[in-house]
Specification:
This protein has 1074 residues and is mainly alpha-helical. The protein contains 35 helices and ten strands. The chain folds into three domains: 337 residues, no CATH class; 290 residues; 224 residues, Methane Monooxygenase Hydroxylase, Chain G, domain 1, CATH 1.20.58. The longest helix is centred in the middle third of the chain and has 41 residues. Keywords: Membrane, Transmembrane, Transmembrane helix. It is found in: Membrane. This is ER transporter 6TM N-terminal domain-containing protein.
C-alpha cells in the first residue's frame, strides 16, 4: 500500500512507442498502397536505440532513481556532521540504498520498505541480546578491568577473549541459520533476509571486542542509524524523483495488452491469407540460403506475438494486486481495474485458440502419415504418385479455395475487432482521441460509419458482428459448393424441410476416409469462425463496460482512491501466508529465473502411513516432537544450514586469536556478506553463475579505478562517474532478471571501494583505522575487495555442492514436476466445468454461490499460476543450456520440448473450456431460435457422454510425482483414447451431425470441443513419451528362455524351475524368449 500523487494516466506516446512493432515505420515502406515519408535521422536513431537497448524514457527514469539513492548516500559523507555520525560504518548507508531497490513502483517499494524496517529493528534487538551474552562471557572470564584502545568515533578494540568469541560465533551461526530458514520458507522476504544477514554478520564480528554494554549499544545504534538512513534516502528518491505508481504500471500493461491483441489479430489475418497459397500441412522451413521452402512463416510470427502476449498477461497478473491496494489519486477503482483485466483475458483466450491452428494442421498431417518435409502447395493433382499424395494435394487445393472465399468476411471482422480495441483504448484514455470528422469529411471518405472514439461506434460494431455471424451461412454454403453439395438458396432458413443434392461421398460409411477427412475440414472452418466471433463478442462486452464507466463520469474527475478494509486485511495476511501476492516483488535472487508459486495445501500435505491422527493429548504432544524433527529435515532447514556453515567457514577466522587481526585488517567480513547475497534457496550449483559473478565483480573493480583515476581522485568527479557506472548494475536488474545477483554484487563492490576511499579522505587515516582495519590506497584496496568477494562467492559455491550438490538441473526437473501438478489441477477444474455446462448445471454465473462462479474463479487462478510457471520454466531451460556441464550432458532439448507441449496442452484445455461456455450461453437465451429441436436433442444425447476423462488428472499427477522425485513411472501407463463423440452421436442419431444442422449455433462449439480434446490428448501422448525418456518406466515383464542360452545370465533377476516331465531345465527371465 502507498500514497501516490498525480494522475494515473500515462502519456500515450511513451507507451505506444514501447509496444510498437519495429517494422511498422520502416523508411519507404508502403502502407495501404501509399508510400510513407522517409524516416528522419533522429527518428531512426531513436528506433535503433530502443531496438538495441530497450531503454525508453520511463526505463531511464528507473535507472536514474536507482543510481541516485546510493550516490546521495556516498556524497553526503562530505558533510562533517554526517561523517562524525557514522564514522567507519558510513558505507552501509550506500549499501542499504542499493538493497532497498528504489526503482520499484511505489506500492511494491512501500511494502518492501515496511518489511525492511521491521526486519532491521528485529535483528538489531537480537544483536543486542547476543552482544549482552558476549560481554557477560568476557566479564565472567576476565573481569571488569580490561585494557582497551579506541579512536574518536571508532570501534573500541580490546584484547582477545576466547569465551566472548565462542559465544559470538554461536549467536552468528544461529542467527544466519534462522534468517535463511525463514527466507527459504517465505520467498517474499528475500531482501529483508539479506539485510538482516548483513546486520548480523557485522555486529557478531565486532561483538567479542566490547567490554561493556555501553560500547555495544553505541555500535549497534550507529549501525542501526546507518541502515535506516540508507532506507530514508532510498525512500526520498522513490517518492520525489520521477515518482512511479503501481497504477501507472498497470495502465501501461493495459496499453501494451490492447496493442498486443491488435497485433495478434493482424498476425492471424496474415496467417489466414497465407493459407491461400501455402501447404497448410507443411511446417515452416527455411533452407541454408535463407529462402522459404515450405509452410507459412506467418504462423511463426503469430505464435511469437502470442508468446509475448501471454508473458504480458502473467506480468499484469503480478502487477495488478499492488495497484488494487494502492492509495492514489486516480479515476478507476480497484474493482474496475480487476474487471478490466478479466475482460481482457476473455478476449485473449480465443486468440490463443486461433494461434493453435497451425498445430492442428500439423497433427492432421501426422495422423495421416503425410511427409511434412515436402510442400504440395503448387503441385497439380495429376502429379500424385499414390492415393495418399492424391488425398493431400486435393486437401491443399480445397483449403486454397476455401480461404479465398473466406478472405472477405474474415478481413471484415478483423478490421472491426481492431477498431473495437482502438475504441476501448480511447475510452479508457490509454491513447489520444482521433480527430473528429466533419460530415463533409465522412461524405468524402464514402464511409458514414462512426469511427473509434465517436458516439454510436458500439452500435455500429455490434451490427458488423451480427453481419459476420450471418456470413457464417455463406461460408458453409461455400464449403458445400467446394464438395459438390448443392443447397437451395433459402436452405438455412428452414433446413428441416428443404432438400439438397448429396454427392456420392456422403453415402459412404461414417468412418470412411473421405467422410472423416471432410468432417475435420468442416470442423476447422467452424473452429475459425467460432473463435473470431467469440473474440468479437467479448470485445463488444468490454466496450460496453468501458462506455458504462464513461457514462458514470469516472473518467471526468480525479479522486482519492483508498482500498477497503477487506483488501487491506488480505494484504496484511499475505505477509504470513505462503500464497502472498508479494512473491515476485522482493525476490532479487532470480538467477535461475524460477517463479515462486503457491501450489496449495494438497501439494505439501501428505498422509502419514506410519501414524494415525492423534487422538489424545499425549499423542498430540508426540506429534509436536515429530514436527520438530521434520522441520530440521526440511529443505528450508537444509538451506539455512548450508548458508550458516559457509558463513562460519570465514567467520571462524575472526574468532581465533592468531587470525583475528588478519580478518579485521583484510575486511574478510565482506566475504560473509557476499555469501548471504549469493546463496539462494531457488538457485542451485552452477559454474556459469559463479564465473558470471566473478566477472561482474572484476568489472566493478575496473570501473572503480576508472571513476577514481580518470578525474585524478577529485571528489566531485568521482561521484559523477560513480553515479554513471551504477546505471549498468540497475540495467541488469531491470532487463536481465536472471542475472540480478551479478548486478547487485557489482553495485555493492564499486560502492565499497569508492565509498571507503572517500570516507578515509574525510575522516583521516587515523580515524578510519580505529576499528582495526588497515588503510590501503585504492589501487591496492580494490584487488583486496575483489579477493574477499571472490572468496565468499567461492565458498558459497562449495557449500551448494557439499555435502551433496543442489544443481540447477535438479531444480529444473523439480519445477517441471510442480508444473505438472498445476496442469493436473487446471484440467480437473476444466473437466468439472465442461461436465456441468453440458448438463446445464452451472447456475447464475453472476452469483458468488453458484457452481459456475466458483469454478470460473478457480480456473482463472490456476491458469495464471500455470502461465507464470511455464514462462519461468521456458526462461530457466533457455538459460540452463549455457551451463558448463559436469558429467553427462543435460537433456535440455527434451525438457524444452516437454515445456512447449505442456503449454500447447494448456492452450487446448482453455479452448475446450471456452467452447463449452457456448452451450451455457445458449441455454440462458429464451428465444426460439436458440431453443431449437437440434439443441434439445444434442443435450439429451451428450448427457451421459464423457467428453473429458478423470484418468488424465491421474496421469498428470503421476508424471508430477515421478519428475519431482526422479523415480520411474508405473508400467503400462497410457493416455486415454479421445471420446469419439461424433461417432457416438452418429450411432445414436445419424441425422444429428448432418449438413442440415451445420449452421446451428451449438454446432461450432461442438466442433471446437472435438478439435481441442483431440489435440490435447495428442500433446499428452508426446509429453508421456518424453517423461518416460527422462525418468524411465518400471518393467515387470518375464519371458521364458532356455538354460542353454548364455544371454540368460544377462538378466538381473532370474527364476529357475524344473519341468516334472522333462530333463531340460528352463528359467523364467526378464529377457526375450528363445
Amino acid at each position: 500500500m502507498s500514497t501516490a500523487s498525480g494522475s494515473d494516466r500515462n502519456k500515450p506516446g511513451d507507451e505506444n512507442r514501447q509496444n510498437a512493432t519495429p517494422n511498422d515505420n520502416r523508411p519507404g515502406a508502403e502502407k495501404d498502397g501509399t508510400k510513407q515519408p522517409r524516416e528522419s535521422l533522429l527518428a531512426r536513431i531513436e528506433r535503433i536505440w530502443l531496438d538495441k537497448t530497450s531503454i525508453d524514457r520511463r526505463t531511464y527514469m528507473q535507472l536514474f532513481k536507482g543510481a541516485l539513492a546510493p550516490t546521495i548516500a556516498v556524497a553526503a559523507y562530505q558533510s562533517t556532521s554526517y561523517a562524525n555520525t557514522f564514522t567507519t560504518v558510513g558505507y552501509f548507508v550506500g549499501t542499504m540504498a542499493i538493497l532497498s531497490l528504489p526503482m520499484q513502483p511505489r506500492a511494491k517499494f512501500v511494502q518492501t520498505m515496511l518489511i525492511n524496517i521491521c526486519a532491521t529493528c528485529l535483528v538489531c534487538a537480537v544483536a543486542l541480546l547476543a552482544m549482552y551474552c558476549t560481554v557477560t562471557a568476557r566479564l565472567n572470564t576476565q573481569g571488569s578491568t580490561v585494557p582497551s584502545s579506541a579512536a574518536a568515533g571508532g570501534v573500541v578494540t580490546t584484547p582477545y577473549n576466547s569465551s566472548a568469541s565462542a559465544v559470538a560465533g554461536i549467536w552468528l551461526f544461529i542467527s544466519i541459520y534462522a534468517i535463511n530458514v525463514f527466507r527459504a520458507k517465505r520467498p517474499q522476504f528475500t531482501i529483508p533476509g539479506m539485510i538482516m544477514a548483513n546486520f548480523a554478520n557485522v555486529s557478531m564480528v565486532y561483538a567479542p571486542q566490547f567490554t561493556s554494554m555501553t560500547a555495544a549499544q553505541a555500535f549497534a545504534q550507529r549501525l542501526l542509524v546507518a541502515f535506516l538512513t540508507g532506507f530514508a534516502i532510498s525512500t526520498g528518491c522513490a517518492f520525489l524523483v520521477f515518482p512511479l505508481t503501481s497504477r501507472q504500471v498497470v495502465f501501461k500493461d493495459f496499453t501494451g495488452y490492447i496493442t498486443s491483441l491488435r497485433g495478434a489479430f493482424k498476425a492471424n489475418l496474415d496467417y489466414m491469407h497465407s493459407l491461400e497459397e501455402t501447404d497448410v500441412f507443411a511446417p515452416h522451413r527455411v533452407n541454408t540460403a535463407g529462402e522459404e521452402v515450405a509452410g507459412s512463416k506467418e504462423a511463426e510470427v503469430f505464435k511469437g506475438k502470442m508468446r509475448a502476449l501471454t508473458a504480458l498477461h502473467a506480468k499484469t497478473s503480478i502487477d495488478l494486486p499492488f495497484a488494487k491496494r494502492e492509495i492514489a489519486f486516480g479515476k478507476l477503482g480497484p474493482d474496475d481495474l480487476q474487471k478490466l483485466f478479466r475482460m481482457l483475458r476473455l478476449v485473449m483466450i480465443p486468440v490463443l485458440g486461433l494461434s493453435c491452428m497451425s498445430d492442428v494442421f500439423q497433427r492432421i498431417a501426422e495422423e495421416r502419415g503425410w511427409d511434412r518435409s515436402k510442400s504440395f502447395a503448387d503441385v497439380p493433382l495429376s502429379d500424385a504418385h499414390d492415393e495418399d499424395e492424391e488425398m493431400r494435394i486435393e486437401s491443399v487445393i480445397e483449403w486454397h479455395e476455401l480461404m479465398r472465399r473466406l478472405r472477405e468476411p474474415f478481413g471484415s471482422i478483423t478490421q472491426a475487432i481492431d477498431e473495437g480495441l482502438e475504441h476501448i483504448s480511447i475510452i479508457l484514455q490509454l491513447e489520444p482521441t482521433r480527430k473528429r470528422r466533419s460530415n463533409e469529411d465522412a461524405a468524402e471518405d464514402g464511409d458514414s460509419r462512426p469511427k473509434p472514439g465517436e458516439k454510436g461506434f458500439l452500435v455500429s460494431y455490434k451490427r458488423r458482428s451480427v453481419d459476420f455471424l450471418e456470413s457464417k451461412k455463406e461460408m458453409l454454403r461455400a464449403w458445400c459448393a467446394v464438395h459438390d453439395i448443392e443447397l437451395p438458396g433459402d436452405f438455412f432458413n428452414d433446413p428441416y424441410s428443404k432438400d439438397f443434392t448429396a454427392p456420392p461421398w456422403m453415402n459412404h460409411a461414417s468412418l470412411s476416409k473421405d467422410r472423416k477427412r471432410l468432417r475435420k475440414q468442416l470442423f476447422m472452418c467452424l473452429y475459425m469462425e467460432f473463435l473470431l466471433f467469440h473474440a468479437a463478442r467479448r470485445i463488444s462486452e468490454l466496450m460496453l463496460y468501458a462506455e458504462e464507466l464513461q457514462a458514470a463520469g469516472k473518467f471526468s474527475t480525479t479522486r482519492l482512491i483508498v482500498p477497503g478494509y477487506k483488501r487491506l486485511r488480505k494484504w496484511v495476511m499475505s505477509f504470513a501466508s505462503r500464497e502472498g501476492e508479494a512473491h515476485d516483488d522482493q525476490q532479487i535472487d532470480s538467477e535461475a529465473n524460477t517463479t515462486s508459486v503457491y501450489m496449495g495445501e494438497a501439494y505439501k500435505k501428505r498422509k502419514d502411513p506410519e501414524h494415525l491422527p492423534p487422538q489424545n493429548t499425549w499423542e498430540r504432544s508426540g506429534d509436536m516432537l515429530r514436527g520438530i524433527a521434520h522441520f530440521f529435515a526440511s529443505p528450508a532447514s537444509n538451506f539455512g544450514l548450508r548458508v550458516a556453515c559457509a558463513t562460519m567457514c570465514i567467520a571462524i577466522v575472526a574468532y581465533l586469536q592468531e587470525t583475528r587481526s588478519f580478518f579485521v585488517t583484510k575486511r574478510l567480513f565482506w566475504a560473509q556478506i557476499m555469501i548471504s547475497i549469493s546463496m539462494s534457496p531457488s538457485a542451485g550449483q552452477s559454474l556459469r553463475n559463479f564465473f558470471l559473478r566473478i566477472a561482474g565483480t572484476f568489472v566493478a573493480m575496473l570501473l572503480s579505478w576508472v571513476a577514481y583515476y580518470i578525474v585524478d581522485g577529485k571528489t566531485a568527479g568521482v561521484l559523477v562517474f560513480y553515479f554513471v557506472f551504477l546505471h549498468a548494475g540497475i540495467y541488469i536488474i531491470l532487463k536481465y532478471p536472471q542475472l540480478t545477483p551479478v548486478g547487485v554484487i557489482g553495485q555493492i563492490t564499486i560502492t565499497l571501494i569508492l565509498a571507503y576511499e572517500l570516507q578515509v579522505r574525510k575522516l583521516g587515516v587515523q580515524a578510519a583505522t580505529s576499528n582495526g582495519q588497515a588503510y590501503y590506497p585504492i589501487y591496492i584496496l580494490a584487488p583486496i575487495r575483489l579477493a574477499t568477494v571472490c572468496g565468499g562467492l567461492f565458498l558459497a559455491w562449495i557449500w551448494t555442492v557439499f555435502p551433496y550438490p543442489i544443481t540447477e538441473h535438479s531444480l529444473l526437473r523439480q519445477n517441471l514436476g510442480r508444473s505438472f501438478y498445476l496442469l493436473a489441477n487446471y484440467y480437473s477444474v476444466m473437466h468439472e466445468t465442461v461436465r456441468i455446462r453440458l448438463r446445464g448445471g452451472e447456475g447464475d454465473s453472476a452469483s458468488k454461490d453458484s457452481p459456475g462462479y466458483k469454478l470460473d474463479k478457480a480456473r482463472q487462478k490456476v491458469f495464471s499460476k500455470c502461465s507464470m510457471v511455464l514462462a519461468g520454466l521456458r526462461a530457466q531451460a533457455d538459460f540452463v543450456k549455457f551451463d558448463i556441464p559436469i558429467g553427462g550432458r543435460f537433456p535440455t532439448e527434451r525438457y524444452q520440448q516437454i515445456i512447449t507441449q505442456m503449454q500447447s496442452a494448456l492452450d487446448f484445455m482453455v479452448l475446450v473450456s471456452l467452447a463449452s461456455s457456448a452451450f451455457e450461453d445458449l441455454q440462458r437465451r429464451n428465444d426460439r431460435e436458440h431453443d431449437s429441436e437440434w439443441l434439445v436433442t444434442f443435450r439429451r444425447l451428450i448427457k451421459d457422454a464423457n467428453v473429458t476423462s478423470e484418468a488424465i488428472t491421474t496421469l498428470l499427477t503421476l508424471m508430477s510425482a515421478s519428475l519431482s522425485t526422479g523415480s520411474a513411472l508405473p508400467p503400462y501407463l497410457r493416455v486415454p483414447e479421445p471420446y469419439r463423440l461424433a461417432s457416438r452421436l452418429d450411432e445414436l442419431d445419424k441425422d444429428i451431425l448432418s449438413v442440415r444442422h451445420i449452421a446451428e449455433p451449438g454446432y461450432s462449439s461442438f466442433a471446437v470441443m472435438q478439435i481441442g480434446t483431440k489435440c490435447m490428448l495428442d500433446d499428452l501422448r508426446k509429453i508421456l513419451a518424453g517423461v518416460k525418456e527422462l525418468v524411465g518406466e518400471l518393467d515387470f515383464s518375464y519371458h521364458t528362455v532356455s538354460t542353454a542360452d548364455d544371454s540368460r545370465n544377462d538378466s538381473e533377476e532370474t527364476l529357475t524351475y524344473h519341468k516334472s516331465r522333462s530333463a531340460q531345465d528352463f528359467v523364467t527371465s526378464n529377457g526375450v524368449e528363445k
